[in-house]
Design a protein that fits this description.
CYP11_CYP27_families, monooxygenase, 8 strands, heme binding, 2 domains
Amino acid sequence: MFKTILQKYHVKRQFLITSLKYSSQIPEAPKQTLLNSLLNLVNYERAYKFHHYVDGNHKKLGPIYRDKIGPVSAVFLNSPEDYQKIFRYEGATPRHFLPEAWLLYNDMRKCQRGLLFMDGEEWQYYRKIINKIMVSPYSLKDVVIKSSFAAADDLSKELKIYSDNQQVIPAIERRLYRWSIEVMMSVLMGSTWNSYKQIGRIEAEKLAGILHKVFEISAKLSLLPAKYAMKLRLPVWQEFVKVADETLDLTRKLVPQMESYGGDGLLFLMKQEGIQDDNLIKIVTDLILAAGDTTAYSTQWALFLLSTHQNIQDEFAKQVSTLEVNEIIGNSYAKGILKESLRLYPTKKNICGYDLSGGELILMSLYSSGRNPLNFYQPNEFIPSRWLRNEKGNFDGVHNSYGSLPFALGVRSCVGKKLAETQMTLLLSQLVKNYKINCSNATKIDIKLHLISVPSEPILFYLTKR
């Protein structure tokens, strides 16, 4: 894909280092014993805490080291300078690292998938179309804002009963899944969403009930040779196939249903650009799945940080209390809250991967770089104001902003970035306008990795009227 990925380290296909500043070979993480490899078959704690494992290796071995994820050999990086080089030299059609379990499943079921699973010219063709609609010139903007605000207002009103009764919000994770899926469905349909809304909410509720299981089981399979788990019909593989079947069957039925109502949303715009039939279904299916998981958890982490930093929450409420919707989206403090939350809890995969020309793999350790004092002042603290520009136009407390790349960069950056930012900002602002958000967990909440960052235990939120 490119002759050298990291000029600083001169990493070539054989991963030899020629720089005199570093040792002659990339450091390697200690190899697992046979016993530890076998224990991974029954103990998934390492999968859940893989971000800590990677961060610990960087602290011991430096900004670059080599290790294995299950059967896959990879080079790990946590240097923002090297992140930039990866995106600079990635080429026109870079490949992303995909979990082996999903590739095996797609092959077994003979199913084609959306943008995340596409490569080469096929990916480039469809990505250019989606970019026009969702990135630049962003013809979907008005639909996104209207859909996001309506869904935020609905959820805020739905939660009023728990505020009135001073109850912990039950099943917050599932509610946020449903909210995120509903926003995506509303964006897909546009003006006809209200006609479909009653049916759509039932379908979104079903999907919210099973979607998180897919990512949880995928994380377990990531430490195993998935092909052997499949051949041996291990329980974890059978469970994965079951929930993947349920999830994809449900989402593929949704697309023709929504399409039959017409509308002026994303579905309409994609069809105008020539995306039809099976291609439309497979792309939209993956958009729904991706939006449901990452946005739901990113929002939950932001709520958690606001609930445990009341002074920041109060300042946020004060700033947005009199603003119109478009002003809230552009508010610098609101943007800072989002950036800071995504820096501390990067749900767009803690480990972000790219294939090299020789079939090798480079992984960017986003959790590690986001909490590195070389990149951020007081890196473990929630300080949204660090993202406000000073008189010189710089950020105070940000030594290297490339240490946090929640939506990635380059041609394969997150196509749903503007949608996610809009819906999260409007929900957070709507909630802090109406309520004080509190957290009643007695124990410390940590990250647990299910391919993306999820809370180590259910977060107990309760609301009081503001």
